[in-house]
TrEMBL record:
Residues 12-25 have a biased composition (Low complexity). GO terms for molecular function: hydrolase activity, acting on ester bonds. This is Cut9-interacting protein-like protein. Residues 317-327 have a biased composition (Acidic residues). It holds the Pfam family TatD_DNase. Residues 1-11 have a biased composition (Basic and acidic residues). InterPro entries: Metal_Hydrolase, Metallo-hydrolase/TatD-type, TatD-like. The lineage of its organism: Eukaryota, Fungi, Dikarya, Ascomycota, Pezizomycotina. Residues 1-25, 115-136, 210-256, 301-337 are annotated as: Disordered. It comes from Hapsidospora chrysogenum (strain ATCC 11550 / CBS 779.69 / DSM 880 / IAM 14645 / JCM 23072 / IMI 49137).
Length: 444
């Protein structure tokens, strides 16, 4: 998920500027899958999913407004109930949907942490919020709620906001425990659903409220010639940034960690894979995830370690995932997720090596998108060496786009082509390999 909607994809041109038509046709029939995307941000695009050329979309939920949308889209388009249903899908089978339920770090301030088992818990629930019931207006007065919101947001945001209008514009926080409970229900009713999008983000700042934006851009409220978006785009699911200006306020990392850790535990308990977001927080993200598997690290066998060292010295390709996978595929009951996808991974090769240390008890996957990984010159320049470093059985491709349809297919195709080129794979071989990686990531 990116803070600004990427510009529309141009299917006629690939990333190196050459015409797609001059290239080998893309082998869609082999099953290209999208490991991470957000089409429920543009509900009108959902109708195009069955006719997409991709074999499967992994649709992320991120906030209060989209959990039920992801669930209903998965129900409407057919819940995938067996690995075989993807494996055996013929070339004309409609694109499948794998739902994913989670709370994104950009919205972590909207939850207060009322769990007691987390060591990173920072916020005590404001007393007015613990008794607040939106359906019962007698439980708290408006003043109580405003005071509670002020106390909560002062705790979880930095700098602490003192602007009354800004605080008023923020939603009344809801409890982490109730979110975990409803997410558990969704995961139970969707047997192959993931947990995501979850993670940490030190770069993100909260957008300014719409009201403030309006008054800035339309002081006379007639709004005839505002330069910025004059109002919400009703075709987009509420809650996103939608081009609003940014406030200076960020969510404190400690609070983000508490929200992330609770969801990692839920994923571990139910044995579900996760899709992980990390921006300008690679070390902290690793430390937070590693804390949940502390005491469960894999024992590194010396013979195996020698083999790994030798493989690393020669090249980056091989991992011992076949051997490892047998250790981690039994479902649930652990404090850490069995499989983790570092989505639109923007870290360095050194960060990658940390995740792929042989003692890591979860199976790590790494996914790349044109929207994020090719969005900046810095990202573009380091991408080849990072892709080269990812073990061949752990690489995935995603769009991270907010609208389903042809643009999503085109973005996937471009990244598939790029990965295949960097890995030295023929297109058919590469698409087949990545589909197998995707199936193992989703189904274990
Ligand atoms: Zn995303």
């Amino acid at each position: 998920m990116c803070q600004q909607h990427p510009p529309d994809h141009q299917p006629s041109k690939s990333q190196d500027g050459t015409s797609s038509s001059s290239k080998q046709p893309f082998p869609w029939h082999l099953g290209a899958c999208d490991a991470h995307c957000h089409p429920t941000d543009t509900m009108a695009s959902i109708a195009s999913i069955p006719s997409m050329r991709a074999r499967a979309l992994t649709i992320m939920a991120t906030r209060s407004q989209d959990q039920h949308l992801v669930s209903s889209v998965a129900n409407d388009l057919g819940v995938v109930r067996h690995r075989e249903s993807l494996l055996s899908a013929h070339r004309d089978a409609p694109c499948a949907v794998i739902p994913s339920f989670g709370w994104h770090p950009w919205f972590s301030h909207q939850l207060y942490d009322d769990t007691t088992t987390t060591s990173t818990s920072t916020t005590t629930p404001p007393s007015s919020l613990t008794t607040y019931n939106p359906g019962d207006t007698t439980t708290a007065t408006d003043e109580d709620l405003l005071a509670a919101k002020k106390a909560h947001y002062a705790t979880v945001l930095t700098p602490s906001p003192d602007d009354q209008a800004f605080i008023s514009s923020l939603p009344t926080p809801t409890s982490l425990s109730s979110f975990l409970s409803s997410t558990r229900s969704l995961l139970t009713s969707h047997p192959f659903a993931l947990v995501g999008e979850i993670g940490l983000d030190k770069a993100f700042r909260l957008p300014r409220p719409w009201e403030e934006h309006h008054s800035n851009s339309r002081p006379d409220s007639a709004g005839a010639n505002s330069l910025n978006p004059p109002s919400r785009d009703d075709t987009l699911t509420p809650g996103g940034r939608e081009g609003r200006l940014l406030s200076p306020h960020r969510v404190r990392p400690h609070h983000q960690q508490a929200i992330l850790s609770a969801q990692l535990r839920l994923a571990g308990d139910l044995g579900r894979p996760v899709s992980l977001h990390g921006v300008q927080a690679h070390g902290l993200l690793y430390d937070t995830v590693a804390a949940c598997w502390k005491g469960h690290e894999r024992e590194v066998v010396s013979r195996r370690k020698r083999r790994m060292d030798a493989a690393q010295a020669q090249g980056p390709e091989e991992s011992d995932s076949e051997e490892d996978a047998t250790e981690t595929t039994e479902a649930g009951g652990k404090p850490f997720p069995p499989r983790i996808c570092l989505h639109s991974f923007s870290g360095s090769v050194e960060v990658l090596k940390q995740w792929f240390h042989p003692s890591t008890p979860a199976d790590i996957y790494v996914s790349f998108s044109t929207a994020i990984n090719l969005g900046t010159d810095a990202g573009k320049s380091k991408l080849p060496e990072v892709i080269a470093e990812v073990p061949k059985d752990r690489i995935l491709v995603e769009s991270d786009l907010h609208r389903a349809g042809e643009d999503m297919d085109a973005a996937l195709e471009d990244m598939y082509r790029m990965v295949c080129e960097i890995k030295g794979w023929g297109l058919e071989d590469g698409v087949r390999r990545i589909r197998e990686n995707y199936e193992t990531f989703i189904f274990g």
